[in-house]
Design goal:
- It contains three helices and two strands; from the N terminus they run αββαα.
- It has helices at residues 11-25, 51-57, 66-71, and strands at residues 30-35, 41-47.
- The protein is globular, with a radius of gyration of 13 Å.
- The chain starts with 10 loop residues before the first helix and ends with a helix.
Length: 72
């Protein structure tokens, strides 16, 4: 059971958030970063990007750049 600081959201719900957001604003692609307490990216979920394109992008964010700054 989660404590006061934790919230459990099933994976299928998390996976749907970038997809629904992309549809809402008619975007080509979108992403959702799940950040840990330490500011590092725990999970990075994309929508509208093929597996091939995602691999070509390279390493996924870790929370040290713009995502880390936004999280701070």
């Amino acid at each position: 059971m989660p404590n006061d600081k934790e919230l459990f959201i099933p994976g299928d719900v998390l996976e749907s958030i970038p997809h629904l957001a992309r549809q809402l604003v008619d975007a080509e692609y979108s992403a959702l970063a799940i950040m840990g307490d330490d500011g590092r990216v725990l999970k990075f979920i994309t929508s509208g990007i093929s597996d091939e394109a995602r691999k070509a992008i390279g390493d996924l964010p870790v929370g040290k750049g713009l995502l880390g700054a936004l999280h701070a």
